[in-house]
Structure formats: C-alpha cells, structure tokens
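=== RUN LOG ===
request id: a7f3
mode: sequence -> structure
chains: 1
length: 75
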Amino acid sequence: MHTDDATQVLDVRDADGQPFDHIDDALAALSGSERLLLVNAFEPVPLYDVLDRRGFEYETERVAPDEWHVAIEAV
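=== RESULT ===
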C-alpha cells in the first residue's frame, strides 16, 4: 500500500467519543479506489477482525511510541 491523492487520512487520537464510530463512518465512505490511513494513539487490535470481516486489507506501522498508522483498502 502507498499514500497518494486517493488516500483519506483519519486521525482519531483526539476524537470525541469512541474512535470506532469515526472509523466506521470513514470506511463506509470509501470508494473502491480510495484508501484510508488511520492514525491512532495505540494499535487498534480489535479493529482487525472488523476489517477482515468487511473485506479490507490493512498494514499497520508503529511510527512513534504513541502513534500507529493503519493503511486500509478494500480488496
């Protein structure tokens, strides 16, 4: 996966409420050619099962002690 103009960035580190609601909305809004780059303060392990069930591929990278990037795209 790579980041370019077709990548939507969602930073949920300071999100109000549960971050999953914001993530779910962003996933639902993706078109087939877009990707989502999720920026989170922790590794979102519970999200992986959801992504698998919904047919998304993802790659996770820890870029700082309190910053994780998850690149997500539809299969």
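=== NOTES ===
The mean pLDDT is 91.
The first strand starts at residue 7 and ends at 11.
=== END ===
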